[in-house]
Specification:
With 273 residues, this protein is mostly beta strands. It has one helix and 20 strands. The strands form three sheets. Strands 9, 12, 13, 14, 15, 16, 17, 18, 19 and 20 form a ten-stranded antiparallel beta sheet that branches. Strands 1-7-6-3-4-5-2 form a seven-stranded mixed beta sheet, with no helix packed on it. Strands 8-10-11 form a three-stranded mixed beta sheet, with no helix packed on it.
């Protein structure tokens, strides 16, 4: 095997827009953001980041890896492993710090904060289904990154918040909350295939849409799901209605965007940036 080492000095700002093409999402090389790495290869390469397969789009000699960066990622240099025709290349990029705000929420249903034994059995079973949806992979070349907002309403809780439920620390907020009255339509922000629907303990009524190459969107706390698994959706198609199912303090849509099994800030994909 032949190995090469290439270092990309990415921007030292906490928010960096990739201006070479309007079709790409915003690049933000922070925990919870994403990196766009150019790969010069005649053949389409395969890229992996911490063992997770990474989206690669483009054309010969102008490939781009779209890498989701976990919220848990440490600042400093990280490696993207790229393979083409038995040639292995390591592309290095820098993740810079971003401080997310803290949010304290009071949950009236205490079982949604401290589940009982029966709840935990359900949660463990559901976790397998959710993980399968988040790691779903389909080969697709023509991928749209110009997402539209999936429902009408203000952003109520941004992505990445450090969260405390009833003063107990929990995982950071893995999506973007949009406040809207119960029954407000939810639409697909881009074309894709519905790969999972279900009623989950924490997420409530939930839909997962596959947009190709590990780009998955998730919609939680829905009042109703108006679409079935395996359905192809176009931008703007109604998939359900806003509700307050699962662990909530009020009616809203929790919207997550997943890349290489990593939740990233949905704002980076909105067409009206």
């Amino acid at each position: 095997m032949i190995s090469k080492f290439i270092f990309f000095s990415l921007c030292v700002l906490s928010f960096n827009c990739y201006s070479a093409s309007s079709t790409l999402p915003i690049e933000s090389t922070v925990p919870g953001g994403l990196a766009i790495i150019s790969i010069n290869s005649k053949e389409k390469p395969e890229a992996r980041f911490y063992e997770q397969k990474v989206m690669v789009i483009g054309e010969p000699s102008d490939w781009k890896a779209i890498v989701g960066i976990p919220l848990s990622a440490k600042t400093g240099i990280h490696e993207l492993n790229v393979s083409t025709n038995k040639i292995k290349t390591i592309y290095k990029f820098e993740v810079i710090n971003k401080e997310y705000e803290t949010q304290y929420l009071t949950i009236k249903n205490k079982r949604k904060v401290n589940p009982n034994k029966q709840d935990m059995a359900r949660i463990i079973k559901e976790k397998e289904l959710i993980s399968k949806a988040k790691t779903y992979w389909s080969e697709k070349e023509n991928i749209s990154f110009d997402f539209i907002k999936p429902t009408n309403g203000p952003f109520s809780s941004p992505f990445g918040l450090k969260r405390f439920f009833n003063n107990q620390p929990r995982k950071p907020h893995s999506g973007l909350d949009i406040a809207a009255p119960k029954g407000t339509p939810i639409i697909a922000p881009a074309g894709g295939i519905v790969i999972n629907t279900g009623d989950y303990f924490f997420n409530g009524n939930t839909v997962f849409i596959d947009h190709g190459q590990g780009l998955i969107t998730m919609y939680c706390h829905m009042d109703s799901i108006d679409i079935g698994e395996g359905t192809a959706v176009k931008t703007g198609d109604i998939i359900g209605k806003v509700g307050l199912t699962g662990r909530v303090t009020g009616a809203h849509l929790h919207w997550s965007v997943i890349l290489n099994n990593t939740t990233v800030d949905p704002v980076l994909f909105l067409s009206e940036k």
